Amino acid sequence: xxxxxxxxxxxxxxxxxxxxxxxxxxxxxxxxxxxxxxxxxxxxxxxxxxxxxxxxxxxxxxxxxxxxxxxxxxxxxxxxxxxxxxxxxxxxxxxxxxxxxxxxxxxxxxxxxxxxxxxxxxxxxxxxxxxxxxxxxxxxxxxxxxxxxxxxxxxxxxxxxxxxxxxxxxxxxxxxxxxxxxxxxxxxxxxxxxxxxxxxxxxxxxxxxxxxxxxxxxxxxxxxxxxxxxxxxxxxxxxxxxxxxxxxxxxxxxxxxxxxxxxxxxxxxxxxxxxxxxxxxxxxxxxxxxxxxxxxxxxxxxxxxxxxxxxxxxxxxxxxxxxxxxxxxxxxxxxxxxxxxxxxxxxxxxxxxxxxxxxxxxxxxxxxxxxxxxxxxxxxxxxxxxxxxxxxxxxxxxxxxxxxxxxxxxxxxxxxxxxxxxxxxxxxxxxxxxxxxxxxxxxxxx
Length: 446
Hints:
mainly alpha
């Protein structure tokens, strides 16, 4: 790599992502994680009502997205969540730590989707787990790095092609599986099987399946006509994913029982395809899963590197070249894929998903509270919508924490340690919790 001005990449890339590319990027992250990585785990918590968990997740996400849209319409920027938090709390440790939690949750998502790719790739060979899963996952993460290192145009074109292919393919899978499985009769479940705590807790993972909309806010300054198109992109992406998730969840529920889905949670769609669509349907579903998860990784790596570059430019996180030449963004691409690869090697899918859910919900509650308490009048936002989002986040987080304390208390401990460590680290680095709120926070970005 050659040496470059650190600011040049960001300046050159303004307006480089079209509305179509942005929607493809958002849906690429959401569908890659939501359907293929999380369906089995959501079914394990929600039981036969798991298709409705996706709808509940879409509703909670829609309320949460309102604050992001209002802020992005007013102040679009690459690294949009960092901008929102800085304007709300000032350039101090609170904004920096919450922004870093968002970035970490996205890196966690990359490792989740990479392991899902590996799990599906190995199913035709009847390999379930083992050392090949992290090896293949790391290989996919490296591929995503190479695509992103080639520039925005490669990311945009590839995202559009892969998103169109997978959304069309997933829709066909859902329709065909429902038809072959005899419709919706087997998906209703028994009301007696409904567990309120399990269902509400499952929504935490459903929300994780929709959080790809933050990919859009993180690249806001690079979207054409961002004051209009950021909000449009978020709404379109959430709507597309909600319909897709519901269709596929109903199809899976018509083919497999919840215990069967949970048993095959790392490759639930492939397991559901074979009974109703035969061996050919199984292979096609595996191929579709690989396309979906690969595009999700590419889109996520793109967005995380942009966000970390913004945080570095804002002096909210320290930066070291570690002997590398090139721009800050090129360094952040390397840091992102290295962390994602390590997580893919060290943790299984269930723990990766749980950790991501904890980090994301805490970050989102910080965003909602900051916008409601400090910025809602400035951006002309409806306070009740933001408070509803905050309350829903808190309810889901409490339920999910209760479930994990029963089934895997150590992941709750890991999450708390991670969150506290991030806040303390940023407090030590920045030496202030909120910084100069009235000055730099409101005037530092346009």
